[in-house]
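Chapter summary example.
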Amino acid sequence: MKMAVLLSGSGRTLDNFHKRIADGSMQGSIEVVISNVAGVLGLDKAKGYGYPAFHCATNTEINEILAKYDVDLILLAGYLKLYTPPESLKKAVINIHPALIPAFCGAGFYGMKVHRAVKKRGVTLTGCTVHFANEVYDDGPIIVQSTVPVADDDTPHDIADHVFAEECNAFPAAINRVHDLGVDYFWERTGKGSDL
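The structure predicted for these 196 residues follows.
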């Protein structure tokens, strides 16, 4: 599948995608990389990898760029803004959340806020969830979930490191699963596709 990557920061997830595609452990190809934040390291990395890379501040600008490329999936890779895709790609936006949805998710739960909440609650198991995105934060059909144990002496930063390491496996696994089963499978499995 042909993919666009949307990011807002350093591009660590883009690094992982690039490496996994190169070694054959992740299916698909990256056609374009877009950041809603100007001058971020992720855009420099994208250019270094040879991907077309753009800064676009609004959904409209992003969708204008996407219209110029043949894209099957949009991957939100550390993209810290609610994104509204073009109608043709409404069911094809994939996000990763650094917790096990439905726990520690929704508006306001992102990045270190999630890991601090996990630590404060005292859970012994956290992880990450790769899911399709819709107009509600962390609400779309789940593709893959992967767990990470939380030790009593783990700090929120330790938890973040462990979860990100697992994200590097889970996100490519989810892309492969979508490639094998198709986008519609996940929407139909959950019944969420009926209202789109």
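To summarize the output: The mean pLDDT is 95.
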